[in-house]
Amino acid sequence: MTLAVLLSGQGGQHPGMFDLTADRPAAAPVFAAAERILGRDPRNLVREPGADLHGNRTGQILCCVAALAGWTIVEAAGAVRTVVAGYSIGDLAAWGCAGRFDAAAILRLAAARAEAMDAAAGDGAGLAGIRGIRLAEIEAIAGRYGAHLAIRNADDSAVVGGPRPALEDICAAARAAGAQRAVILSVRTPSHTPLLREASRHFADALAAEHPQRPPRGAPRLLSGLDGAPVFDAGAGLSKLADQISQTIDWAACLTACREYGCDTVLELGPGHALATMARNALPGARVHALEEFRSAIGVAQWIGAT
């Protein structure tokens, strides 16, 4: 068995996102590190009435917490061959799962990343998801309204980024062109577009202040969330981690890489199940689940161990 662990991006945060990990002793250091940065225990924060779980800084930190806490379940299951790849902020979390940074460093970097993005983006911009028309047509429609292709998900699925009024026009034009889905996402930053070049530069400085660790023996193979390439050189990998804030990311290439590595089992860690849904389409025949589709950590471990 070869397991692909996919780390979620923003958008799916919800009050029950820590239901399987909240009481795990192995995850306690992750929650403690997050509390120092957020000022509140994330397990309590997500259940507070009126809590803004989709604010950029809070959302990015919560997604990393969910990924790292969920990873403790995978570690305990003892999977032999594992590949990790992350979507947007999940790309940073993947470095933690791969043993390149500890939880405290990942969460510090998540906060720095979000702060750099907020400073560069200002107000009034975001992302929209479009599915059901050709990728080239999605990109052309976005260009007509001054927006940018942010994420390639598949040949007929993408995310575009730009000012919210432009996104509304893009969604209307995409629906008129036959798109099955064209909606503005609950992300308030035009991630992975040239609008955030300054954020890439600032985040590169934050990464340079941290010191990646040599991955431990048996650590999973780390794939870059920018292009699906394996990360062998830490310096080159960190450059991509900064660049992906302001460059189009190719998630379709990440899924292709998982297929090429022979991944026959796929588990999404983080809020939601969007990556699991895409993996089911891209890796036909693979066993695919999101962590949140299970009722217990024991069930996850048994599923990973089944062949």
Question: Whole-number average pLDDT?
Answer: 96
Distance N to C terminus: 7 Å
Order of H and E elements: EHHHEHHEHEEHEHEHEHEHEH
Percent of residues in helices: 40-55%
In CATH terms, the superfamily of the largest domain is Malonyl-Coenzyme A Acyl Carrier Protein, domain 2
The number of domains: 2
Total helical segments:
12
* CATH topology name of the largest domain: Malonyl-Coenzyme A Acyl Carrier Protein, domain 2
| Broad CATH class of the largest domain | Alpha Beta
Note the overall shape. globular
What is the spatial order of strands in the main beta sheet?
7-2-1-9-10
- Ranges where pLDDT stays below 50 over 5 or more residues in a row are none
Output the structural class.
alpha/beta
- Strand portion, in percent? 15-25%
The appropriate CATH architecture of the largest domain is 3-Layer(aba) Sandwich
Biggest sheet statistics:
5 strands, parallel
Rg from alpha-carbon coordinates: 18 Å
Q: Tally the beta strands.
A: 10
GO molecular function: [acyl-carrier-protein] S-malonyltransferase activity
Keywords: Acyltransferase, Transferase
Protein name: [acyl-carrier-protein] S-malonyltransferase
EC number: 2.3.1.39
